[in-house]
Specification:
The complex is a heterodimer of chains A (246) and B (494). With 246 residues, chain A is of the alpha/beta class. Chain A has one domain: 3-Layer(aba) Sandwich (Rossmann fold). Chain A is 29% helix and 29% strand. In chain A, the strands form three sheets. A six-stranded mixed sheet of chain A has the order 2-1-3-4-14-13. In chain A, helix 1 packs across helix 6. The termini of chain A are far apart. In chain B, a hairpin with a 2-residue loop joins strand 10 and strand 11. Chain B contains 18 helices and 17 strands. Chain B is 38% helix and 19% strand. The chains are: A alpha/beta (246), B alpha/beta (494). Chains A and B meet through helix 1, helix 2, strand 8 and helix 7 of A and helix 16 of B.
Chain lengths: 246, 494
């Protein structure tokens, strides 16, 4: 058994310590004797949809996001759509999340998106939405809490066909746009969220869920992951929750 | 004196004098009450009554002009170095030495200190406003690293703000810039003429033996500020500080005139460097550890030259100084000697970890020879496993940045296998401990105790002699207060 991970634009989209997510996945596989293969795909590089089962894209500065948006649509969009259609998991965080939709209106410019989810993002007047955040989600079939930190100037609006990843615990964060209470998007095995940077270390359950989804695509059935001694992971989750006031 | 300065000097008259007196009295009362905060309160009060107070006070008081120091990392230390150099010249400056580096800290120093010259470290985000008020004769800019993105925003945006501030500064403003940081070096270009600005003195490192084996993960200045193409690096020394060029538009690192050509790092003990300056070469013995402090020293020497101090005299003053508050200091606590090293962002933390790695690799005899004899005795008695002892305090208060994501960008892996025991403390202690677990540190060597005092006592109790304390900024304040309350260290505003 092997988890095959592809990071999209790891050189450009890494601003909030996104590598923490990859390290977290790697160790949790190693401790369970699950193989772990990681690759990055940068500008101009093509993607083989069959080769990887978990795709990751992190956050980046505006300038990087512009470069990435154009390149991604040109060199990777079709392959990613095929992989997702076939059950691959994709975690898109912050700036990467903004590129999941149809477009991102960044000032006078419209950045193209992957079109993997029915959402659009605009950079509106008003302050950046910054702070600790807690959301309730039913990803994985049971009611769970995701805790993390958000910091975004863009506001994301889901289309009528899109399912949010969850709801912001009222009074404990901003979410997609600070207005409708929704946070993120969840479409097939695609998860998009503003909870940025190392959100998996704060939410080990989400890391394990993504590992399961990716391995299921590879092996044809959902594996049973061996439980790990997660005392510190649970304490870190509690700490992040407490920071969000939940 | 410029017309603007004359106008500022005349401003306020008797009314200004009354406001100044009131602000001073409030500061004195605050200090007497023992609640601290004396480093900012008078300035806050004065600025509320008189928003232009910094300009007025500077124009009246600072006949010798002001110097501003800013950077993500090292601004307190660099300003401390320049202060030591000026003091040795008999020119002690008005200086916000406690590191209170927003407008109120600057205003408080101007209110309460004597001196004909000003020296102010200034928070990155406040630089444009303070520069506009002070009209400094010299601005020293060290580096821009990713730091507290929740507060400062993206670095490139910050560099843009700095460029705008320099564009409106008087043409006579001197600049000391780091040639090795592309974001900083490019500020020496006149945006209108595209030619180098007048009055810029660059500093940098040209000792390839200090190169990083590979580019670090927290590598920030990726794209040419002029054309957006990724830079090509020949060598990097600290984070993205190094020798770079743009393969697309040909932008290059400027040739610095204050250059460290040979550097010897000696762990926590400090370093030695040969520094080429215009018209000669000097030897610098630095009692502060790490390559990052070599950069700070180069900035200070360049600033000294700009302020009319001879390089040899600047070097002599640096040799005699001690670290800025909390940046590197060693304090006896219980039976241990506790060395404090501030960590606050990936690039700074990486340099601290690199220094500690050197320390962990030193033969024990060499380490012992520097410790007081009582501690050596303790060391022999306790013994206990290989590796260094650490206390890491991760806080998430506003001055730290509320977002603690950055610990995943810092290379704690550097010390994997080199740590005997670590105690994690602070408001986000469990998340610090988790980071270390995933860096491959054995969990049975990682303890978690969020309370600063309890965790320090536990760490000291378990330490055989030397404990390295790595607090974030507000954890450092708490630690310093704790040690002061126990009579082990002075409170920093005293």
């Amino acid at each position: 058994m092997e988890l095959r991970v592809l990071s999209l634009y790891p050189e450009q989209m890494n601003i909030y310590a996104d590598r923490g997510n990859i390290l977290f996945l790697r160790r949790r596989c190693e401790w369970r004797q699950i193989g772990f293969e990681w690759r990055g795909a940068g500008p101009g590089e093509s993607v083989d949809p069959a080769e990887h089962d978990l795709f990751y894209i992190g956050g980046g500065q505006d300038r990087d996001q512009r470069v990435v948006a154009a390149d991604m649509v040109e060199t990777k969009r079709l392959a990613l759509a095929a992989a997702v259609e076939d059950g691959a998991a994709l975690l898109a965080v912050c700036g990467g999340y903004q590129l999941l939709g149809e477009s991102y209106q960044l000032g006078a410019e419209t950045l193209p998106g992957l079109g993997l989810a029915d959402l659009r993002t605009v950079r509106e007047e008003g302050p950046r939405l910054i702070g600790n955040v807690a959301i309730e989600t039913e990803l994985g079939g049971e009611k769970r809490l995701l805790a993390g930190f958000e910091n975004h100037g863009g506001r994301t609006y889901l289309g009528s066909g899109a399912r949010p990843l969850g709801r912001v615990v009222p009074g404990h964060g901003h979410g997609n746009n600070g207005d409708d209470g929704f946070e993120g998007v969840w479409e097939k095995n695609v998860v998009g969220t503003y909870l940025h940077g190392p959100l998996l270390p704060k939410n080990a359950w989400l890391a394990d869920h993504l590992i399961e989804l990716a391995l299921e695509r590879r092996c044809g059935e959902r594996p049973r992951l061996e439980p790990l001694p997660d005392e510190l992971e649970r304490a870190a989750h509690a700490s992040a929750r407490a920071a969000a006031g939940v | 004196m410029s017309a603007r300065a004359t106008e500022r000097k005349g401003r306020g008259g008797a009314a200004f004098g009354a406001k100044r007196a009131l602000a001073r009295a409030i500061g004195a009362a605050s200090r007497r009450s023992g609640r601290g905060g004396g480093t900012t309160l008078p300035g806050r009060v004065l600025l509320r009554m008189e928003p232009e107070a910094i300009a007025v006070l500077a124009a009246r008081k600072l006949r010798g002009g002001a110097t501003i120091v800013s950077a993500t990392n090292g601004k307190t230390t660099t300003a401390g170095m320049i202060a030591a150099i000026l003091a040795a010249e008999g020119r002690p400056p008005v200086h916000n030495r406690a590191g209170s580096n927003m407008t109120w800290g600057v205003a408080t120093a101007l209110l309460e200190q004597r001196g004909a010259e000003g020296l102010f470290e200034v928070d990155e985000a406040w630089l444009p406003r303070v520069a506009q008020q002070l009209e400094p004769r010299l601005i020293v800019l060290g580096n821009l690293f990713r730091d507290q993105l929740d507060r400062y925003g993206e670095m490139e945006a910050l560099a843009e703000e700095w460029a705008k501030a320099l564009a409106v500064a008087p043409a006579a403003t001197g600049l000391v810039l780091n040639a090795d940081d592309p974001l900083i070096a490019d500020l020496g270009r006149d945006p209108d003429t595209e030619r180098p600005r007048e009055g810029v003195l660059y500093f940098g490192i040209e000792d390839h033996s200090q190169a990083l084996p590979e580019l670090q993960h927290a590598f920030d200045a990726k794209h040419c500020r002029r054309c957006g193409h990724p830079y090509a690096y020949e060598v990097a020394f600290v984070g993205h500080l190094g020798h770079y060029s743009c393969p697309n538009c040909g932008a290059e690192r400027p040739r610095p005139e204050v250059v460290a050509t040979r550097i010897e790092l000696r762990g926590m003990e400090g370093s030695a460097a040969t520094v080429r300056v215009p018209g000669g070469e000097i030897e610098v013995e630095l009692p502060l550890p790490g390559l990052y402090n070599v950069y700070n020293a180069l900035a200070a020497i360049a600033a000294a030259l700009k302020l009319g101090v001879e390089a040899e005299r600047a070097a002599a003053a640096l040799g005699g100084m001690r670290a800025a508050f909390g940046r590197v200091e060693t304090i006896p606590v219980g039976g241990a000697s506790v060395s404090i090293l501030l960590i606050k962002n990936p690039a700074g933390a990486n340099e601290v970890l690199r220094t500690l790695k050197l320390e962990a690799e030193r033969p024990p005899s060499q380490v012992r020879s520097q410790l007081p004899t009582t501690v050596v005795g303790n060391c022999e008695r306790t013994g206990g496993g290989a590796g260094i002892d650490l206390w890491i305090a991760l806080n998430d208060r506003i001055a730290d940045g509320r977002d603690v994501s950055w610990v995943w960008d810092a290379d704690f892996e550097v010390l994997t296998g080199a740590v005997r025991r670590v105690t994690c403390s602070g408001t986000r202690a469990p998340e610090m401990a988790l980071r270390l677990k995933y860096a491959g540190w054995p969990v049975d060597r990682v303890a978690v105790e969020p309370d600063i005092a309890a965790s320090l006592d536990a760490a000291v109790g378990a330490s055989p002699g030397r404990l390295f304390a790595l607090p974030t900024y507000t954890a450092l304040l708490e630690l310093r207060k704790l040690l002061a309350d126990r009579g082990l260290a002075k409170e920093f505003w005293q």
